[in-house]
Amino acid sequence: MLKYISSADRHHAAPAAWLSSYFLFSFADYFDRTNMHFGPLRVFNDDSVAAQSGFPQHPHSEMEIVTLVLDGEITHQDTMGNKTTIKAGEVQRMTAGTGLAHSEFNRQDKPLHLYQLWFLPGQRGLAPSYEQKDLGFLSGNKNELVPLVTGQKVLEDVVYMNSNSTVYWSNLSAEKEIEFKTFPIRLTFIYVKEGTIFVNGTELGPNDQARMTDDDVVQIRASTDAQFILIDLPSSEANY
């Protein structure tokens, strides 16, 4: 079963002049009890941050926070002592666990574009931790699903998180097709960055979503060159 959500149905928030954000799930001032999460995927924000602006230090706990930088770079500082810069094509994961605080700023003279995803953790009470990798996903392998972040220890050259989920990226060329095998006990989430794809026959354009349940196979075909994110998730809270 596929639920299609158009780009127009995202919640747009601009709480400050320097921030434009699209919330795919209930977040901050946006509350919809029918759109709280999809499996353990609790937050998916599509953020654009103006030059020389950013988020001052703020706290988190009991959440796996994943940041994918799509354009520009972000300067990160946290109470664990990390001071890093995450550039386009890099992936960051923070395990908030028992509690941390961090700040995120765009110190550049051009806008920053990023996705930030929050996952409900598979285990509570963990010590806060941090990981960052340059995976070059924006210009990497074409016509396949490339894992970026996962809770599966069998995958290599990825960022690990405390969630029984995997975040994939794909750069799919026009008229190419890929297949993702799943199970009825799993969920599949797709969000398109650019281009047009058909997911099990349903057309998705830029910033459209597909939320899929009770499937065995997800077939994806691009009608134009496309980039998209696919997230494999458990459907049962017992398996988060």
From TrEMBL:
GO terms for molecular function: metal ion binding. Transmembrane segments: none annotated. The keyword Transmembrane helix does not apply. The lineage of its organism: Bacteria, Pseudomonadati, Bacteroidota, Cytophagia, Cytophagales. Fe cation binds at residues 58, 60, 102, 104. Belongs to the pirin family. Binds 1 Fe cation per subunit. This is Pirin family protein. Its cofactor is Fe cation. Residues 156-233 form the Quercetin 2,3-dioxygenase C-terminal cupin domain. Keywords: Iron, Metal-binding. It holds the Pfam family Pirin_C_2. Residues 15-118 form the Pirin N-terminal domain. InterPro entries: Pirin, Pirin_N_dom, Quercetinase_C, RmlC-like_jellyroll, RmlC_Cupin_sf.
